[in-house]
Amino acid sequence: MSAPCCSSKSPEPSCCPAASPEVRVLPPDWSCTDWWGMISVRMGSCRMTYGMEPGLYAMGEPTPDSPVLVTANYKLTVDLLRRELGGRNLWILILDTANVNVWCAAGKGTFGTAELVQRIAATQLAERVVHRRLILPQLGAPGVAAHEVKKQSGFEVVYGPVRAADLPAFLDHGEQATPAMRRVEFPLGDRLVLAPMELRHSLRPILLVALALMFLPVIWHGLPDGLGDYGLRGVLATFVGWIGGCVLGPALLPWLPGRAFRVKGAWLGVALALLLALAGVARGAVPVLGCVLWFGAGVSFLLMNFTGCTTFTSLSGAKVEVKAVPAQIAGVVIGLLLWSADWWM
Questions:
Q1: Which domains does the chain have, with CATH numbers?
Q2: Residues 6+ away with beta carbon under 8 Å from 259
Q3: CA dist 203 → 199, 207, 296, 343 (Å)
Q4: Cis, peptide link before residue 67, omega less than 30° from 0
Q5: Which of 6, 189, 276, 305 could form a disulfide with 281 if both were Cys (CB 3.0 to 4.6 A apart)?
Q6: pTM for the complete prediction?
Q7: What is the pLDDT of residues 254-304, one digit of tens each?
Q8: Residue 259, CB-side half-sphere exposure with 13 Å CA sphere
Q9: Beta-bridge partners for 156
């Protein structure tokens, strides 16, 4: 079976009509660049620029009968898709979603009906395949009106599973999804893989707080008392709260009390503050009260930010969450003042 016309594997690209858009080839294997790109975006770097050219791509050696899968032009999404589908002959239609993943792009409208219909026409898809079926990710459904796609392009929309890992089984069983494939899960692995990005984004203010709590006691009391008796305890407490909000909070998310993320974070922060008191890091009634306020508000804010990484919250839900920000800021400020009362008063 020869490679599709105009692909980079085609030995005679001149055989294609001049007006025919190019079909690029997607290799199934990841390169070192792909791995480094995944690490970078997981750490929160270049998230909004990590994209690839929209258009029609070939995996393997697709024929006119091969399935057509539709996805976003966020490169990590495409990389995960091709990793799961390696060894198969498929067409991959990549929409221009401004380098945003399918779920977020569907909410913003860039993974939508108009872009899909336009991309079908621009790639001359109807001339490359004999069937009229498109497999879209289920999380893209909010942005696409399937009946309008059918009306405007002649292509029927079939929604695939939530996860790319289920696509091989979906394709092997006549494009039928099981109930488990339709269910949006958020297991421990998915929660923790997002933690590095939250850690990186909050690192700068955390370092500022830690440095202030380390050096201000030194200015007040001098060395070694200011550092050993006060400063190091402040640094330790700061990093306990930071790790608690960005790592422990997501890990314990299903078991923390409350429904709102800010409430879950507040409970976790209070628990961590009490543990620090039991461990002797927070000493005295006033500093312990300060630690409770500081951690309750600070961890609440850190875990509230995590709502942007989940599929559990809506736009209206996010607006309700952020109403707590003034109270969280006040709690952190008052808490830090009370925490430091034993060395500045």
A1: 13-185 (3.40.50.11600), 189-344 (no CATH)
A2: none
A3: 6, 6, 19, 26
A4: no
A5: 276
A6: 0.77
A7: 999 998 899 999 999 999 999 999 999 988 899 999 999 999 999 999 999
A8: 5
A9: 133
